[in-house]
Amino acid sequence: MLTKIWRLRSDIKQKIILLMWCWWSARNKTNAGERRNNAQEVFNEVNYHMMVWNLTHQQSNTRIKHVVKQKMESAPRRCLQNKL
Question: How far apart are CA 32 and CA 30, in angstroms?
Answer without folding.
Answer: 5
